């Protein structure tokens, strides 16, 4: 009787798990806080073990036995399923690397490490700008884009309106409830539009949103629009200050915004929005591979 190599047997088991996982739902998502090089750790199937960068979002489907590996994928266009380290496995690896480095340098123990952050499976869409949320200019421009988005993605877009003001700050209980609502909506794998009153990215950054900044890039045009839509000098000053703050934040590295819409023409702005959302939609779907492709990855 021919003997089956333990290595080949394990690879076969992993490939079977990957093949079956394509029909399974995503259980949860994480944002990577650290970079991971798959060559630094032993894996049951090295060629299907994914590296990722800090800031990447990861989808986890199911654990692969008790190995500390999960079947999942890095969120991105045309990416397939493979193996990702569990939080415990990656944390142990990082702690060992840090400890060895500290010993070489003669340093003491460092602070606790964080490798993943909780994140929704579908990051909620939040519009910001061109000024504060309560400004007439902001309402006018965002309303047109939201109407287009709802018309363009019927059956693929879930709208959620929080019960509380986000910009005024939430209690811990309210934040936890909103987090749960957004996370549950993401399990459908539909796009999630969060219809909230956030004016700045730090109002809502804890939900890992897709921040879409609507920008009036020419200052003179912005000033004229604000002047036409405000009744008092005090209100005008406040709205211009809010607009300048949002504009300044767009120059940060890394940028807090997922998309900046600078188009002055509404049709062009809508096209930019459509392309971005279609790209994100595709990025949240794993590419299904045939059995032969699973055995011989690209």
Automatic annotation (TrEMBL):
Keywords from the UniProt entry: Phosphoprotein
Guanylate kinase/L-type calcium channel beta subunit domain residues: 192-279
InterPro entries: GK/Ca_channel_bsu, P-loop_NTPase, SH3-like_dom_sf, VDCC_L_bsu
Any one GO MF annotation of this record: voltage-gated calcium channel activity
Keyword Phosphoprotein: yes
Gene Ontology CC entries for this record: voltage-gated calcium channel complex
Domain of life: Eukaryota
Keyword Phosphoprotein: yes
Gene3D superfamilies reported in the protein's UniProt record: P-loop containing nucleotide triphosphate hydrolases, SH3 Domains
Listed name of the protein: Voltage-dependent L-type calcium channel subunit beta-4
Source organism of the structure: Geodia barretti (Barrett's horny sponge)
Source species taxonomy: Eukaryota, Metazoa, Porifera, Demospongiae, Heteroscleromorpha
